[in-house]
Amino acid sequence: MESIVRLSDWLYLLLNGLAGRSWLFDTMVSLPLDNALVKAGPIGACFVYAWWAGGGESDTRRRRSILLVTVASLVFVMATTKIIGDQVFQPRPFAHSQQSWHLEDGRLVETAKLPYRAPLNGGVANRYRALTRGEVEQNDLVSFPSDHAGFFVALALGIFLASRRAGGVALAWTGAAILLPRIVTGMHSPLDIAAGAAIGAAWLFAFQFAARPARRWALEPLTGWTLRHEALAAALLFFVAFESANVLTNVRDLAGTGEEIVDHVAGG
Amino acid sequence: MRAIAAFVLSLALAGCGALDHEAMVMTVEPGWTAELVASEQDGFASPDGLLWADGMLYVADEGGSAIRAWRPGTRPALLADARAGLASPEDLVRDSAGNTYFTDDTRGGLWRTDPLGRTTALVEPGRGMPSTEGLGLAPDGDLVVGDAPGHRVLKVSPDGKVSVLVGPERRIAKPESFAFDDRGNLYIADNSDNVLYLLRTDGSLHRAIADRSGFSPESLRFAGGALFITDSDNGKLFRYTPDDGLNAVALFGGSLANIQGLAADPAGALYVSVQSDLKGRKGYILKLSRKD
Description:
The complex is a heterodimer.
Chain A: H1 2-16, H2 23-34, H3 36-52, H4 57-87, E1 100-104, E2 107-110, H5 123-132, H6 147-162, H7 164-184, H8 190-210, H9 215-228, H10 230-245, H11 249-266
Antiparallel strand pairs in A: 1-2
Chain B: H1 2-17, E1 23-27, E2 32-39, E3 50-53, E4 56-61, E5 66-70, E6 77-80, E7 89-94, E8 100-104, E9 110-113, E10 119-123, E11 132-137, E12 143-147, E13 152-156, E14 162-166, E15 175-180, E16 186-190, E17 195-199, E18 205-209, E19 219-223, E20 226-231, E21 236-241, E22 245-254, E23 259-264, E24 270-277, E25 282-290
């Protein structure tokens, strides 16, 4: 296992070494991290393309079945990354550049600092400056596994299973524009990304496999419904694409608000 | 497809197994060093309030329902425990006569263990103290006690007379901890509304820190001209002065995030208690000292 961590650190140092040299490069690399449209817009577009890509009715039904199952798997991907993240305390690489100690065999042992090159512009640069002032988000102390890797790898793989053309673009965008910048800017280590991606892929394949028996009684009626009610299906698709751009943030916020409402009503 | 699924799942699990840094202290202010000085293996269960006095660390061991006195490097001595009626000792102070006073947020009341080791209720819970939180020793020798259900700060004389120092009309939600500065002003931590109050000697009450994101004061300690503050909600240790404002000294994460009590020794080292699992009676005492 140590060799995996060493490999991850080596790769991280290599990629993070690109940051902090050019304002323009750092700005471009930070763009997908700071801007939801740049980050997830192309993925949403690929999803919509795969939904409507040409072919006969049976082909359309097959693609839509895959995409619907993919969307269902995303909820489990996010839940899994959250549960593991709550159990495994692993600060972001940029936070690991600070002096720190970790608990080992009942003692506090000074942790080897991870060198870090801060980007010259963008949200991560601001977060790093805030960290050095002690203003750190709790979220920055939990980077394993990457929920973005889990979410977008599952989504892009699902699109790929539905449409090779759209999925190829989605996978390329996920790798180059969503995941790579997270390593370059020190938001995640390659190990965070690999674990998140593995969780995303695991849930996606598990769902696609488990959905086979449900194809006749659940998916076929559902895809048939989307064909008969294209306008309504398109309207619902808008919600899916919109929320994909926000990594289910609004859904999670909504669930929290719902919980507050239930507590409020139950508490009188 | 099953083979692919098995492969990616094993990769995910392998990634989880590679990480063993489940708890962490990160110093933000330069020049500090951190060490773990005690845990449940040293005779503590899950410590809360801390006090440094007479070369000893006095510990309100909430998880162990006990008050202990500990000289680093030795086993802690028991001053009082559940046999004397303690349930969840919260905060403690010690006067010049060697009496140790403490609050109890489950049992309520204000308790005293005298130098002979006898523990009695200075103020019974039934006398308007059903759950007591913060405790401070005023320069005049009186005690200030946080009455959480009543949203009040009470003043108690050494002979047990109770008066109201800050009434509920001043809207302090939960007086969790107190610290007097070197001029006799009283800082009050409200970890329900997340406000640090300052009660000046002229009786005026100010909101020194309020409406600040990522700040929930738990325990206060005035040392070396600055107010140190633990924040268990956000796992942070802060330093505050009116001139410099609020600055983080250290961040605590994982099983060390729930930092509670705070004490300072004469050399300027800070002791921080951590309740990693109150029900499971697990906790730590950490020491942060200046390298120089």
